[in-house]
Amino acid sequence: MVHIKLCGFTKEEDLKKAVELGVEYVGIVLYPESPRYVGWDRIGALLEAGRGANRVAVMVNPTYEEVKEALQVGFDLIQLHGEEDLSLAKRIGLERVIKAFRTCPELSLLEDWKRAHGVLLDACSRLYGGSGQKADWKMAREVVEKGFRVFLAGGLKPDNVAEAIKDVGPYGVDASSGVERSPGIKDHRRMEEFVHAVKNAFENRHQP
């Protein structure tokens, strides 16, 4: 089974739709520079709307105190999307961390990241996610083959996610801009199409 993570939620109705569709991971961005940033004053309502999925706080180079606050308000997992090192992840608890990496030529993963909840592989972009650019699928496949639990991100959308699953074989797939009408505003039809494509890809992979 390929798990589905949708990221960059800013509206309660979009989160409720994701849960209704059976999306297992929903990401809320706590990075102020992102167009999908959500302020702490709105977190409670969004976390409630996302109940039923794993609620992921997407953070960029946070302090441990900021991470602790996110967990205390009700997030289930922390996605470290900056240049954080292994020591912070270990302090949080690797089982509660999804660590994002860019699929740039110099990518090299420490074995300890295999103990994380997952590693998210994104495009080789200067942006901290949400660029809409495609990750390096060949590199991602190599990481999967080395035994890492991979969430594949980077430019995934309804019309290419099945191909990505077949090429990479990830634990999960992650989309943000690929299911949006505008940054932070989800397109419910595209969300439905994305989930349908993932489920169909999984079924097709197991046909003789």
Main β-sheet, spatial strand arrangement:
1-2-3-4-5-6-7-8
The CATH superfamily title: Aldolase class I
Provide the structure class: alpha/beta
**Main beta sheet strand tally, sense and closure:** 8 strands, parallel, barrel
Round the mean pLDDT to the nearest integer and report it: 93
Helicity level, as a percent range? 25-40%
Determine the strand fraction and express it as a percent band. 15-25%
Any idea of the CATH topology?
Answer: TIM Barrel
CATH class: Alpha Beta
Annotation field: number of helices: 7
Number of strands: 10
What distance separates the N and C termini? 17 Å
Overall 3D shape: globular
Provide an overview of this structure.
With 208 residues, the protein is an alpha/beta fold. Helix content is 33%, strand content 21%. The chain has one domain (3-205): Aldolase class I (TIM Barrel, Alpha-Beta Barrel). The chain is built from seven helices and ten strands. Helix 4 links the parallel strand 4 (77-80) and strand 5 (97-102). Helix 1 runs parallel beside helix 2 (43-49). It is globular, with a radius of gyration of 16 Å. Residues 204-208 have low confidence and may be disordered.
Describe the secondary-structure layout.
Blueprint: E1 3-7, H1 12-20, E2 25-29, H2 43-49, E3 54-59, H3 64-73, E4 77-80, H4 86-92, E5 97-102, E6 118-122, H5 137-145, E7 150-152, H6 161-168, E8 172-175, E9 180-182, E10 185-186, H7 188-205
Helix pairs in contact: 1-2, 6-7
